Structures are given as structure tokens and as C-alpha cells.
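Q: What would this chain look like folded?
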Amino acid sequence: MFLKYMKYAIIAAGEGSRLAAEGVPVFKPLVKINGEPLIDRLIRIFIENGGTEIVVICNDRWPEVRKHLAELKKRVTKENNVIMHLVVKNTPSSMHSFYELSRYLIDEPFCLTTVDTIFRESEFAAYINEFKKNIMFGACDGLMAVTDYVDDEKPLYVDVNTENEITGFLDVCDSCKYISGGIYCLTPDVMETLNHCMAAGKSRMRNFQRALVADGRELKAYPFSKILDVDHASDIDKAELFLKGT
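A: My prediction, written as C-alpha cells:
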């Protein structure tokens, strides 16, 4: 079955404390990259890549973000005929945020990311198409975005075999070529692993990814040239230059 449409999910529930401490005057989802808020950029790209249902989680401490998302929800419903769900809840980790979104993702393959991932749109489109092909042939449970560009304080290294099948997610790895890009295309079957992680009291997406490997899920790595996260004020300029191709 070739997927014509896709579900997408965005984790936007973090505190953004580093940006605030460095003088950035808006909350992370509303930070503009080349004039476009991070959350708007992702939703636009998702719609352009067949997104017909999008679910977003934010925390309850940012009324400006909730208001912005509510307005976005009205707009994409009217202009793009896209279903958008908004979950407002404080969570202790990204994996817990994923769990809160999971009830909307149990019936179809989906793509999940955090609000601050910056990537080239052409590479993302190719990534989504590759995932659809894998789903059509039942080739994997997940296609995970990876990159050999390392600009992260605590990168999650991705160990792969010669077929780019993922064999491990490691905090330290001298021989690993890639790190996780924080973009995950997954099938609904992985929810069983997520539920086991929650029951075991685990947290953080990197531990969920490790559990996927431990459970024998078939995961493949999809290389991007570069993926950036907007964690610091300096990352804003870096992201803008990257997307402008300089």
C-alpha cells in the first residue's frame, strides 16, 4: 500500500529555557527563521508533503503559543482541509510528550519531530517518499532521520550495518558515522514498545529508540546532509544561513 497521505506530530512542549536565558524574547515555537515561526514552518512543510492530520503538543505555561496554535488550527482547517489536534499538557520528557500524542497515531504510519528541527525541505520530501516506499513493501517499522553533521551538546549516535539498518543508539561511539536527527517516521506497531517504556518508568526519546532496537523492530537510517536544532540564540542565525544555502 503506497501512502498518499500522512499523519504528522510535533512535540512543542519543552521549556526553551536556554533561549530565554540568552535573551530571545519569544517562546521557542514562535521563534522566526527567515521570517517564519518554527511551528508554522513545520506545519506548512507537512501539508506540502501530504499531511492531512497534524497533532501538536505544547505546555500550559505559554498562553501565546496556545493562542497561536489555535489560530493555526482554524486556518489550516479552512484553507487546507487539514485536521489539526492540539494537546495542552506539561510533560517531564519528550517521550512522555510522544505518549500524549500517541492516541492520535495508533491507526496509520506517521512522522514525528520536535518543533525546532531545521532541515532542507527537498531532503525532507525525499525522506517521506522513501518511508512511503518502505511501507508499501513492508520493509521496516521505522525510518529514522540521521546526519553526519554533529552540532549537539549530547548527540545520540546511531550505529548501522552495511545496509543502513540500525543496530544501536549510543551516547558514545567513536566508530559511528551518524547521529540521530530527531525526525522519526514510524508505523503504529511501535506503540507497543512505547507503552512498555511508559510502564517501566522510562523517559526521553533516546531511550524509546533503544527500546525499539531491543524489541527487534526493523529500523533503517535515512541520511540528511544536515539537521540543526534551535537550542541557543546563536542557532537562529546558523539556521537562517543554512536554509539560505550559505
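The chain has a mean pLDDT of 94.
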